Amino acid sequence: MGINAQETGPGSKNAPSVTTSQTSDELIKHLRAAETHQVAGDLINAAVENRAVLGIALQRMGRIAIEKGEYEEAVNSLSESLKFADTAPNRTNLAIAYLRQNLYEKADIEAQIALAIDPNHIGAHYILGNIYYTKEDYKAARPELEIVFAKAPDLEIARALGLTYLNLKEIETARNHFEKMRSLVGTESADLALLFAKFYERTNYPLDAERELKRALEIEPLKPKISFYLGYLLLQNGGSERMKEAGEAFEKELEINPNDFYSIFFTGVVASAEHDHKKAISFFERAVGINPESGEAHLFLAQSQLEMDDLANAEKHLRRAVELEANGGKNTQSRRTHFMLGRLLLRTGRKEEGLKELAIAGELQKAALDSSRSEISRILGQVAEKSEEEEFDTKGLGPNIKIDLTPERTAQLEKLEEFLSDVIAQAYSNLGVIATQNNQLYDAIENFTVAYRWKPAFPNLSRNLGIVTFRAGDHKKAIEPLTRHLESNPQDILIRKMLGSSHYLTNNYAKSVEVLKPVEAMLASDPELGFFYGISLVRVERVNEAIPFFVRLSAASQENAPALSYAAQGFMIAGDYNRAVKEFERVLVLAPGTPKANYFIGQSLIRLNRVADAEKFFSRELEINPRDALSKYHLALTLIERKIETDRAVKNLEEAISLRYGYADAHYQLGKIYLEKGNYKQAIAELESAVLADAEKDYIHYQLSIAYRKASRKADADRELKLYRKLKDEKRKSDRPMPMGGNDDSPQL
Length: 749
Hints:
Elements: H1 26-39, H2 43-68, H3 71-81, H4 88-99, H5 104-117, H6 122-134, H7 138-151, H8 155-167, H9 171-185, H10 190-202, H11 206-219, H12 226-237, H13 243-256, H14 261-273, H15 277-290, H16 295-307, H17 311-326, H18 334-347, H19 351-367, H20 375-387, H21 407-437, H22 441-454, H23 461-471, H24 475-488, H25 493-505, H26 509-516, H27 527-539, H28 543-555, H29 561-574, H30 577-590, H31 597-607, H32 611-624, H33 629-642, H34 646-659, H35 664-677, H36 680-693, H37 698-710, H38 714-733
Helix pairs in contact: 1-2, 2-3, 2-4, 2-21, 3-4, 4-5, 4-6, 5-6, 6-7, 7-8, 8-9, 10-11, 11-12, 12-13, 12-14, 13-14, 14-15, 15-16, 16-17, 16-18, 17-18, 18-19, 21-22, 22-23, 23-24, 24-25, 25-26, 25-27, 26-27, 27-28, 27-29, 28-29, 29-30, 30-31, 31-32, 31-33, 32-33, 33-34, 34-35, 35-36, ...
C-alpha cells in the first residue's frame, strides 16, 4: 500500500544520555526488540514490543511534564500510557499530576487503583498520605504515612508524620517519633530542634517547644533566630511573670543579628510593658528606621511617647500608622491607633476631630472578630505568619510545589522530550504500519493519527497517514497530512494525485487544479484523475483549458470504453454536447451494455433541444437497467416537453417516485400535469410532496402558489409566492453552473 515503516531511534543524534547504560535501559531494549521483529516480519511480537515502548515512553513524558509543572500535559501523557501499561507506577504518577492540580478526588482514585494493582507500592501509599495530610484528615493520613516512613524513611515524611501525631494529640508518640528523626539524621542538629519547637508551638505544646529551643541553643548558641523564637514563645505563652526572660532572649538575638526587626520591636514591647518607656522609645525608633512601613512600630512608638508626654511626635507617628492602614498596609492594631489618636486630639483641644477618631475606633471595635485577644497576641500572630516562610517547610507535604528548574536541567528535559516524542511517534507509526499490513485500516488510521499528533514532521508519517485516510474515504481529513508531505516532497506523484483527488472530492476545485497542474501531461493515462482535473477546470471557469484537455484524454482512450466515458462526461459538463454524444456513441460501440452511456447521450440531446432523439436513448437505458429512476424521469420529461403521451409520462414519473423516495422533480412534474388537467387537489398533493422532498427549489413554490390560487386558497398561495421570490433572490446572489438534469445526476459511471 505504499506505507513505510520507520527506523528505530536509539542511535539517533537526538537520543539523550540516560542514567543507566543504553544496553540496560528498558525503553532501549524494547525499541531494539521492536525493530528486530518488524524487520523479520514477525508482526505479532513487533506489535507487543511497540506497545511496551509506548507504555514506558509515555510514562516518562508524563514524569517530565510533572517536573516542569505542566500538569495537564502530564495527565494526558500518563492517561495515554495506561492503554499500554496499566501499572501501579503509571497510576501513581497520574495521581501526582492530579494532586498538583488540587484534584484530590481524582488523585485518590488513581492511588487506590495503584494499590489494587500492587498493595505494596510505596508511591501510592505516599500519595494517599499526602492527600489526607493536605486535607487535614490526620486519622486517615497516619497509617499511610507510617507505611511510607517504615519502608522509605526520609525527613519530609518524618516531619509530616510527626505533625500528624501532634494534631491527633498523641504527644508521647510524637516525642518518640522526633527522637527517631534525630537518629535518622545521625548527629545533634539545632535546625532539627528548632523545627520540632515550631511543630510543638503550632499544636499548642509550649513547654515541649521551649525544651526544644533550649536544646537548640545548647547545640549552637550563636545560631540566628533561635533566641528570637524563644523570646516569642515566652511572650506568647509565659505571661507577665516571664516577660523579663522574653526580653533577655530578644536582646540575646540582637547580639547575633543587631538589625533583626522583630527582635528590636519586641525588645521595645517588653520595655514598654515594664514601663521603661525611654528604653522602649529607643528600640521602637530603631524598628521604624528599619521598617518604616510597619504600622505597629509607629503605634507602639507613639504609645511610649505619650507616656513621656512627647505629644507632637506621638501624633506624628499615630497619623503615620493611620496613613499606612489607609494605603492598604496591614495594621493589626488599627482600632487602638484611632482610639489613641482620638484621645490625644481631645487632650490637645481638638474636640471635633478627636470625637471623629473615637467614633472610628468604636466601629472597628464592633467589627473585630476576636476583641478578647491582647494587642501583643495580635502582633505575635502576624509574626508567626511571616516567620513560617523564612527557613523551614513546616507544612511538610502538600500539592503546592514550587517549580524552580536550573537552565541546565531545563535544557536536559527539553532534549529528553524531543527524544521521547520521536520514540512515541515512531512506535505509533510502527503500529500503524502493522495494522495496515493486517488490513486493519481504521486501526492504522488511529495509530498514524496519534503519531502525527505527537510529531507531524516524523519521517514518512504524513505520507502514511494521508494514504490510509484517503483509502478509507475520509478525503477531508486526508488533505492536511497529504499537503504536509507534498510540501517537502513535491516529486511524490502518488501523494500529488491523492491530494488533487481529495480537493476535488471536497469541492475545492481551485486547489485541485493547483495540485494537479504540474502533472497534467500524465493525467491522460489516468482517466478518473484526468476527469477530476478537467471538471475542476470547468468549475473554476477555465473551460478554454478544460476542452483541449478532454480532447487529449479522448484521443488517448479511443479503444478503452471506461476511460473514454470519463472524457465524454468531461465534454458534457464543459458544455460541448455534440462532442459528448459522439464520444458516448463510441463508448457504446466498444461496450454496448455500458451503464449510463445512453442516459448521458439523452441528457446531452436535451441540451441540444433534440428532445425526440433523447427519448430513444432514455428508452435504451431502461432496456439495460429497467429500475433506473433518473432515466424514467427524463423519458417522461421528453414526452411532457412535446406534449404527447401524457398517460405514459405519468406512469414513468410514478415509477420513478416508487424507485426513488423523495424525488422532488418527479412530484413537481406530476403536479404540473394535474394542474393543467384541472385536478387541483391532486396537483396540490404532488407539489406539497415535492416541497417536503426539497424546499430549496424556487420553481416548486411558484407552481404550488398557482395551484393554491386555483383552489381558492389565497393565504397559502401568497405564502408560497413569497417563498418563491425569496429563494429566487438568493439564487441570483449565489448562481452556479446548472446541474445536468435534476437531482444528483451529474455525470458519473
